[in-house]
Amino acid sequence: MKIFRPLWRDGAFLVPQQFQQQARWDAHVADTVSRMALAHPWGVLRAEFDASALTLSRLNATRLIVRFADGTLIDTELADILPPVRDVSDVMQDSVEVLLALPLLSASGGNLDDGQESARPRRWRAEQVTVQELAGHERSELHQDPSRHPELLYRELARLAGSLLTFSLEHHLEAIPRYRHASPEQVFPPLFALLDTLLEVSLPSRVIAIALEQGADREIWRGRLHDARLREGADFYLSVRSSLPPHQLQSRFPQLCKAGSHDDVAEVVNIALSGIAIKPLSHVPAAIPLRLENQYFALDLSTDAARAMLEAGNCTFYTPESLGDVKLELFAVLRS
C-alpha cells in the first residue's frame, strides 16, 4: 500500500486519515532502519503460556511480545489484547506447532471490525477506555491548597477563558480582565462571569441531521423535511456504510439507490426510473461529520424529482439487497 505523507502546516484541516498516514510512515521508517542492521528483524521476543491450562487441553497465552514480518509489533502487556484460548483436545500428537497470525491489511480500507459480519477477518477493533491525565490537574491542586498565590489561579482561569473564546462569536481576547494583585474584586468576579457566559455559548451550525427510519423490509428509508430552511436553501448529502468494498459502493450506489419523495420512489421502483440523481463525493464538506468507514454522496437538486421532494416535505431512499447491509445518514447543509 502506498503511503501518502501528510504535509503539516498552519491552518490545515485535520482528519484521522492524516494521523494514520503519519503513523504508517513512522512504522515504515522504523522497519527500514531495523532492516539495515538485521536481515530478518522479526520474531518472538517473549511468549508465556498458562501451564495449568495445558493440563486441561487448553492453550492460553498470558503474555506475548512479537514482531511480525510486516513490522507490526504486538505487546499484550502494554497495548494489545491476548488471543482467545485455543482448545487442543483434538490434537493427538505429543507436540504441536503453534502459529500466531494477523489479518492482512486491505489497501481499500475496511480494516476495522465494526461488529458486522465480514467475508474476511478485520485487523483492528475499536474500544473506548478512560485514561488518567499524566500531567495532572492544576485546578484541583489549587483547590487542595488554598494558600497558594492567587495569580496561579488567575493563570488557569485565564487560560480556560482563552480556550473557550475560540467558540464565541461575540467576545474577544480583551474581555479577559488583566491581573491586578491589589484589586482582586476587579479581576475574579468579571472573569467568573465571562466563564459562565462562554460555557453557555453554542456555535450556530449549518448542518441539520435528518432522521431516517428504516422500513420493515430494510430496503426503504424515510425521512421528513420539517424545517422550512431545508426547502429554501440547503444541499443534501448521504453518508453511507455498507458491507460492500468502498470502490464497489462508490460506483454501484448512485446506480442502484432510488431517491425522491414518498410517492415518487414507489413509482420509480415499480417502473425502473432513475429518481433524483446521486453523485459520489471525492471531498466531504467540512461541516459534515466524517466517518472513516462511510462513503459520501450528494443529491442533485436541479431535477424535477428533487423539487417534488422538497415541495412534499418528505424523502425516501430505496436501497436494494445487492448493495449489501446498508446504513444511511442524511445531512442538509444550509447555504447561508
UniProtKB/TrEMBL annotation:
<dbReference type="Pfam" id="PF05936">
    <property type="entry name" value="T6SS_VasE"/>
</dbReference>
<protein>
    <submittedName>
        <fullName>Type VI secretion protein</fullName>
    </submittedName>
</protein>
<dbReference type="InterPro" id="IPR010263">
    <property type="entry name" value="T6SS_TssK"/>
</dbReference>
